[in-house]
Amino acid sequence: MGTPVYMPPEQTKGKADLIDERSDVFTLGGILYQILTGGPPHEPGPPLRVMVQAHRCIVRPPDEACGDPRLPLGLALVAIKALSAEPADRYQTVQSMIDGLEAFSRGAWHLPRQHLAAGTRVVTEGEAGDEAFIIVSGTLVVFRDRPEGRTILTRLGPGEVFGEMSVFTQAPRTASVDVEADAVLMVVRGDTLQDALGMNGWVGVFVRTLANRLLRTGE
Predict the structure, then answer these.
(1) pTM assigned to the model
(2) Domain 109-218, what fold?
(3) I need a surface site. Which of 59, 73, 158, 178 has the fewest CB within 10 A?
């Protein structure tokens, strides 16, 4: 039993033991998909044809289905995750899907914050980095330590960003950053930044190429 245009593939097999909360996640993802694109994940038609679509579970990406470049990427990613063919790849509970939607609705200004005292090391040159930072308050100093001494590159204050180049390029940090005056930083994890920018799509190609070019220029 179920509505075929929103049906997960496991439900097409008619075995009750295959259906669990993740099947409900799929159906909710289908409703979100329709809100975003104007149509359900499986194209309406004769019941048998729709059931075959549901069984194969080949869902067009929301941006392709609606052709609107203004489609909110964050919401599209929630829908696609919920509509994964394999239950293990979906949100495992309805609550976790709700959490994903709430994270989108809160936006960037609800990122986790760190309160750091003067003298705290935030970034170390040469290390791998999977976080970028937005300065809410305080002052930070960017520098490089060399055998002949420390070279101060710049000082950063509220509203400025650092650490993003390593996230974009996956290259080691090119400088160290210390807190000079007590600071509050918003922390942007690499996966959050990549999701927000659509780094797995064409936008990501441009961003990574530009970041690598700037990195080479800086050298």
Answers:
(1) 0.52
(2) Jelly Rolls (2.60.120)
(3) 158
Quote the tokens at residue 112. Answer: 């986790």
Counting beta carbons within 10 angstroms of the beta carbon of residue 76, is it exposed (0 to 12), middle (13 to 18) or buried (19 or more)? buried
- Measured CA to CA, the distance from residue 85 to residue 58 in angstroms comes to 8
Phi, psi of 77 (to 5 degrees): -65, -35
Residue 110 phi, psi dihedral angles, 5° rounding: -110, 25
Helix (H, G, I), strand (E, B) or coil at 136: strand
Rounded-to-integer distance, Cα 171 and Cα 76, Å:
29
Domains 4-106 and 109-218 share a fold: no
At the fourth CATH level, the homologous superfamily of domain 4-106 is: Transferase(Phosphotransferase) domain 1 (1.10.510.10)
Per-residue confidence (pLDDT) for residue 218, from 0 to 100: 52
pLDDT mean across residues, the chain? 84
Contacts of 167 (CB under 8 A, 6+ apart): 129, 130, 131, 132, 188, 190, 193, 194
